[in-house]
C-alpha cells in the first residue's frame, strides 16, 4: 500500500534570541536528512542561512522546497517535499498582535499561512499548508484575549476549505498555538472539514484524574510544548492548569481531508491516517539540549484505492440535492454556538480596540502639550545643563508621541477594519447556517 509520511516542527530559530540556534538547526538538518519523511513543514525558520542548511541536508530525499516570506522578518515557514511543486501561495494574516509589543514580535514577523500544490502520482493535486498562529493570549480567561488568533483561525479555515472545494487533497501542518478543545481549533476543524491525525490514529483517552508522567503526556496526549522533558521549558513550576494536568500542551498538529466531491462519481482515492506520534523528544547528544522549545509531530497516511462504482449517472435533481446538502455531508460546519462565541469575542475585542485607541490618542495629545511646554521653557531658561535635560525629555516624549499616534490611529483603524471584516463574514455565515438548518 502506498503511504505518505509527513512531519512538522517549530524550529525556534530567531536570530540572536533563540538559544543554541546554530547547534540545534544543524541537528534538525541531520535528523531530517536521515528520515523517511515525504513532506516536512517547519515553522520559526527565520534565518536564511538556517533554511539553506536544512535544504542542502535533505535535498537528496526532498529535492523540492519553498520558503515563505512575509512581514519585516519573513513568515518563518518552509516546506520540503519529495514531489514536484506546481504552485505556491502565501496569505499573511490580517492581525498579528500590536506593533508596540516588541517582546512578542508577532507583528514584525508577519504570521501567515503558506501553501504548495504538489502533483502526487496517485492522489493528483495535494495542497500542503504550513502555518503558525498568533501566540499571545494563552488559553485562560475571556475569548476576546485571543481575538487575533481567532481571526487567524477563520482566515486559515477559509483558504483550506477553498482548496478542498477546488478539488485538492489537503494536508495542513503547523504550530496552531491552541489546545485541541480551544475555540480556534473548533473553527479550523469544523469550518474547513479537517481531521486531526492524532485524534484519528489514537484511541480516546479521558483527561487524567491524577498527576501523570511527562512521558504519558507525550505518548497519550500528544504534548508538544511546555513539557518537563524539554530542556528549554521554564524551570519554574507552571501556573497553567492545563500544563499541570497534561504535563504540557498539544499545540502542534497535522490535519488532513479529501477534496469536496459531492457525488463521488467516479470515486476518488482514500487518504487515511494510519499512525501519528510526537518526535524530537530526546536531547541532542553532543549538546545535551532539546532540538527546539517544541517537539515535532509526524503522521503516516495510507492511500487506498476506491471501491468500484456500480451506480448510474446522477439525475439533475440528485445533483441539486447533493449540492444543497454538501455542508452536512462533506465539510462539517461550525455549530451556531461556536459561531456565536466567536462573534462575541470579536465584538468585545472591537470595543476594547476603540477604548485603547482613545487612551493612546489622549496620550499623544498630552505629549504634544508637554513638547510645547518644554520648547517655551527651554527658551526662557538660560542654564545650559537644564536645557540638556530638556532636550533628552523632548526626544523621549517625541518618540512616545509618535508611537501613540501610530498605535492609536493607524494600527487602531487597521485592527478594527480587520475585526469588522471578520465579523461581517461570520454574520453572513451565521445567517446561511440558520437558513440551512431551518430547511432540514
From TrEMBL:
GO biological process, one term: sphingolipid metabolic process
Gene Ontology cellular component annotations, sorted alphabetically: membrane
Membrane disposition: Multi-pass membrane protein
InterPro entries: Endo/exonu/phosph_ase_sf (IPR036691), Endo/exonuclease/phosphatase (IPR005135), Sph/SMPD2-like (IPR038772)
Main location: membrane
Membrane-spanning residues: 361-383, 389-411
GO terms, molecular function: metal ion binding; sphingomyelin phosphodiesterase activity
Domain of life: Eukaryota
UniProt xrefs under PANTHER family: PHOSPHODIESTERASE, PUTATIVE-RELATED (PTHR16320:SF24), SPHINGOMYELINASE FAMILY MEMBER (PTHR16320)
Family: Belongs to the neutral sphingomyelinase family.
Protein name in the entry: Endonuclease/exonuclease/phosphatase domain-containing protein
Organism: Pisolithus tinctorius Marx 270
Amino acid at each position: 500500500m502506498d503511504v505518505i509520511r509527513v512531519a512538522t516542527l517549530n524550529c525556534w530559530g530567531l536570530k540572536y534570541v533563540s538559544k543554541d540556534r546554530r547547534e540545534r538547526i544543524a541537528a534538525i538538518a541531520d535528523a531530517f536528512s536521515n528520515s523517511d519523511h515525504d513532506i516536512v513543514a517547519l515553522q520559526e525558520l527565520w534565518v536564511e542561512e538556517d533554511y539553506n542548511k536544512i535544504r542542502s541536508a535533505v535535498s537528496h530525499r526532498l529535492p523540492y522546497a519553498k520558503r515563505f516570506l512575509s512581514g519585516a522578518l519573513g513568515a518563518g515557514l518552509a516546506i520540503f517535499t519529495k514531489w514536484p511543486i506546481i504552485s505556491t501561495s502565501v496569505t499573511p494574516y490580517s492581525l498579528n498582535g500590536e506593533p508596540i509589543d516588541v517582546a512578542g514580535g508577532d507583528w514584525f514577523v508577519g504570521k501567515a499561512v503558506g501553501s504548495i500544490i504538489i502533483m502526487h502520482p496517485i492522489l493528483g493535486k495535494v495542497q500542503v499548508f504550513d502555518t503558525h498562529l498568533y501566540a499571545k493570549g494563552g488559553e485562560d480567561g475571556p475569548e476576546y484575549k485571543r481575538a487575533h488568533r481567532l481571526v487567524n483561525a477563520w482566515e486559515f479555515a477559509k483558504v483550506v476549505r477553498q482548496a478542498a472545494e477546488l478539488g485538492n487533497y489537503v494536508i495542513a501542518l503547523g504550530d496552531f498555538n491552541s489546545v485541541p478543545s480551544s475555540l480556534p481549533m473548533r473553527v479550523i476543524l469544523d469550518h474547513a472539514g479537517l481531521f486531526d491525525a492524532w485524534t484519528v490514529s489514537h484511541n480516546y483517552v479521558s483527561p487524567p484524574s491524577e498527576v501523570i508522567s511527562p512521558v504519558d503526556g507525550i505518548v497519550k496526549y500528544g504534548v508538544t510544548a511546555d513539557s518537563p522533558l524539554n530542556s528549554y521549558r521554564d524551570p519554574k513550576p507552571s501556573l497553567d492548569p492545563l500544563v499541570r494536568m497534561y504535563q504540557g500542551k498539544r499545540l502542534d498538529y497535522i490535519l488532513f481531508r479529501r477534496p469536496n466531491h459531492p457525488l463521488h462519481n467516479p470515486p476518488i482515492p482514500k487518504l487515511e491516517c494510519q499512525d501519528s506520534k510526537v518526535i524530537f523528544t530526546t536531547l541532542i547528544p553532543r549538546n545535551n539540549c532539546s532540538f527546539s522549545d517544541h517537539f515535532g509531530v509526524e503522521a503516516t497516511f495510507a492511500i487506498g484505492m476506491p471501491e468500484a462504482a456500480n451506480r448510474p449517472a446522477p439525475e439533475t435533481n440528485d445533483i441539486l440535492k447533493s449540492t444543497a446538502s454538501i455542508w452536512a455531508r462533506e465539510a462539517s460546519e461550525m455549530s451556531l454556538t461556536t459561531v456565536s462565541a466567536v462573534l462575541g469575542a470579536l465584538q468585545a475585542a472591537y470595543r476594547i480596540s476603540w477604548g485603547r485607541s482613545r487612551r493612546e490618542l489622549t496620550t499623544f495629545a498630552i505629549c504634544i502639550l508637554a513638547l510645547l511646554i518644554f520648547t517655551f521653557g527651554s527658551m526662557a531658561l538660560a542654564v545650559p545643563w537644564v536645557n540638556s535635560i530638556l532636550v533628552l525629555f523632548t526626544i523621549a516624549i517625541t518618540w512616545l508621541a509618535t508611537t501613540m499616534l501610530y498605535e492609536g490611529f493607524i494600527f487602531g483603524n487597521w485592527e478594527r477594519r480587520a475585526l469588522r471584516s471578520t465579523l461581517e463574514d461570520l454574520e453572513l455565515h451565521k445567517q446561511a447556517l440558520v437558513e440551512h438548518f431551518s430547511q432540514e
